[in-house]
What we know:
By secondary structure, the chain is of the alpha/beta class. It folds into 2 domains: 10-183, 3-Layer(aba) Sandwich (Rossmann fold); 209-444, Aldolase class I (TIM Barrel, Alpha-Beta Barrel). It contains 16 helices and 16 strands. It has helices at 31-42, 98-106, 124-137, 148-152, 154-160, 173-183, 227-231, 241-252, 273-282, 302-311, 325-330, 337-349, 370-382, 401-404, 418-421, 429-444, and strands spanning 10-15, 18-20, 46-51, 75-77, 92-94, 113-116, 143-145, 165-166, 210-212, 215-216, 235-236, 257-260, 288-290, 317-321, 358-363, 386-391. It has a 5-stranded parallel β-sheet, sandwiched between helices. Helix 9 (273-282) packs parallel to helix 10 (302-311) and helix 13 runs parallel beside helix 16 (429-444). It is globular and about 60 Å long. It starts with 9 loop residues before the first strand and ends with a helix.
Amino acid sequence: MPNRAFLQPFFLLVNPPIYDFAAHDLWLKPLGLLYIASILENAGTRVSLIDYLDRNHPLVPKTKSNSYGCGKYYTQETLKPEAYKKIPRIYKRFGLSRQAAIAAFKGLVKPDMILVSSGMTYWYPGVQEAIGCLKEVFPNVPVVLGGAYAALCGQHANENAGADFVISSYGLTELSKLVEDLLKYKIDVPKSFNIFPAPSYRYYHKPGYAVIRTSLGCPYNCSYCAQSALTGGYIQRKPFKNVIEEITGFAACGINNIAFYDDALLFEAERHIVPILQDIIERKISVAFHTPNGLHSRFISPTVAKLLKESGFVSPRISLETADPERQKVTGSKVTNAEFQAASELLKQVGYKSGEYTAYVMLGMPGQDLSEVENAIKLANQCGAKVSVSEYSPIPGTGDWAKIRDTLPSTDPLWHNNSVYSLLGQEDRKKIESVKQLAKNLNRSFT
């Protein structure tokens, strides 16, 4: 292991592998960890980042990427945990192999502190593995766990993840205090998301795409979403020139695809996204933009639709979730069928053809029968949208959680898995697959 000869603290940041039945790199980057990397760099520390999910890492067998930088992860079949023994699907591990990760860790100077991120709550086996490997290579280095799993399942993470410290609170204050207490080094963290530095992508050999945020949180509080628990509110970045500079910087580095991670990108559009897109067009920035988190139909005005098209948004994704008016109301009232239909028509008017935009439809919500899902799929298809079926996931911190937590077999976060939760209902698996097939068949009508 290389000798240590530096005075500044050295931080190792790690994004763990995924254990699940399925996973795909759909503009998936540990954005929170990338912001922290920039903040630590600005504080004068040394930083290294190892992302198990970097498909272009030199130690990962090569996988193909599509024209938008997305693709399949390197995959290994693995044993199912006891909770999944009866699930008739193959359980897999996605990302950098354990052996390759240990080799990468051993090639580093011993860090002063290790920061580990976490995503979906039911991906915690990957967190356990990563922390186990880190403890094996760096046995006396403090490991700090943060991210969604740590925030939403703090007790479970404290008892099972293997980290020395688990940060379950929102913001960076707790991390800053840990650094000061343990390393005797002061880090000035930004007081607001408004003044966050651009996320650092310099640790990636070939990013393929970049992900950014122009806002944090969401002004809505949908019953199935945990954003309010994770972000502590809603804030849009101002001045928006910071967003433009970020995008310009990525484009100058040859990154041709940028995905917005905003949960409400179009909220108060005239004061936010409209001037941003106008500036992008004026500067003739030529990149493809993507919206994996879905857009709100009600905010797609003629002006917004025109700017989305002219600035380079590819296959805009719109949140429909359900076509049932009553469920739309009780889950958050963020969309109506009329608003979705109007948004689809506006996208067509500005040049998007049928099949060139996508609607998210949710399957498996509590009390939802499959006919409701079929109706949503058919409505989206009639409006010219491809359909992406998303299976419902029961997540702590959501409005639905109190109603459904006692219906789960245990408190193990593995039961939050969307691929598993639908099997707990009364519907036959073949019927569920037939609904998914309906969406696939209708999508083919656009090809």
